[in-house]
Design goal:
Elements lengths: L2 H12 L2 E4 L4 H14 L3 E7 L7 H12 L2 E6 L6 H5 L4 H20 L3 E3 L13 H7 L5 H4 L4 H10 L25 H15 L7 E5 L2 E5 L4 H7 L1 H13 L4 E5 L7 H6 L6 E3 L2
Parallel strand pairs: 1-2, 1-4, 2-3, 6-7
Antiparallel strand pairs: 5-6, 7-8
Helix pairs in contact: 1-2, 2-3, 2-8, 5-6, 9-11, 10-11
Length: about 280
């Protein structure tokens, strides 16, 4: 039995399912396979909150339309949870608790038998407190159960024509705020505006880390080398970040790596290059 058949069989066995669709490749693949397995008994739901980056909702809508699954949007209020605002290392637990609480209510109201996420096998090797919230809500992780890691997920998504197959990871905006720094709507809006402004300079993959009045940009190679080598581009980057309301800007001299927030959690900080 192929991995695709295994995942589709698992989903079919649920009878009906709500898929938490962020628009990233993992949840998009689950949505596509859920529709193949269950048809109209599968529903994709995207949660909107101040932590959702601009463009992510439209991306999720495009995915749902392309794969044929019914799609709805709900509003979540994780900022109302003190544990989320405090931004300790278990912030994702409080975020996912809010999400799954909301989806569980919807499932009960509509008669859906289960909730499913896009967690994959690679997530087990990272700091993922959100998986604890999922466990408490009985959320099914069909990709993880099938042993599919990110590379296999992307390959299968590409084979099935899922639009987000090559989409870079785009976690919530709160992931740009260092643990221990409170999360609030103003900080999230500033991060979002800064990232949009820098993206317009031709950097498709980036993070702007929030350090109070300092916005610190992380870029992958070779974009990092390009930015550091070009004085005019460095100036434009600094202006873009400050246009979002930051008093100061910086480019991190270490290449961007997904999960850098957890790197700081274990105490390995990178040194920024001050632009202003």
């Amino acid at each position: 039995m192929s991995a695709q058949e295994q995942v589709e069989g698992r989903l079919r066995g649920l009878g009906s399912v709500i898929v938490a669709l962020s628009g990233g490749v993992d949840s998009s693949l689950v949505a596509a396979l859920a529709h193949r397995a269950l048809g109209e008994r599968a529903l994709a739901v995207t949660a909107v909150s101040p932590a959702l980056a601009s463009g992510e909702l439209s991306g999720a809508r495009s995915v749902a339309k392309a794969v044929g699954i019914a799609h709805e949007v709900i509003t979540t209020d994780e900022l109302a949870r003190p544990g989320y605002r405090a931004n300790d290392t278990d912030r994702c637990y409080h975020c996912k608790s809010e999400l799954y609480d909301s989806l569980a209510v919807l499932a009960q109201e509509r008669g859906y038998a289960a909730l499913a996420s896009g967690a994959n096998a690679d997530d087990e090797g990272d700091w993922r407190p959100g998986l604890r919230a999922a466990s408490e809500h009985g959320v099914v992780h069909p990709l993880l159960e099938a042993g599919l890691g990110k590379a296999e997920v992307r390959a299968l998504a590409h084979a099935l024509g899922v639009p987000s197959a090559a989409k870079p990871a785009s976690p919530c905006l709160a992931s740009r705020v260092p643990y221990g720094t409170p999360v609030d709507p103003a900080a999230l809006a500033r991060i979002d505006a800064a990232e949009q402004a820098v993206r317009e300079l031709g950097f498709p993959v980036l993070r702007v880390r929030h350090h109070g009045e300092l916005g610190k940009l992380e870029l992958p190679e070779p974009d990092l080398s390009r930015a550091l080598a070009d004085a005019e581009l460095r100036r434009a980057v600094g202006e873009a970040i400050r246009s979002a309301g930051y008093a100061h800007s910086a480019i991190d001299t270490d290449p961007f790596k997904s999960g850098n927030l957890n790197v700081t959690f274990v105490g390995r900080l990178s040194a920024p290059r001050r632009l202003s």
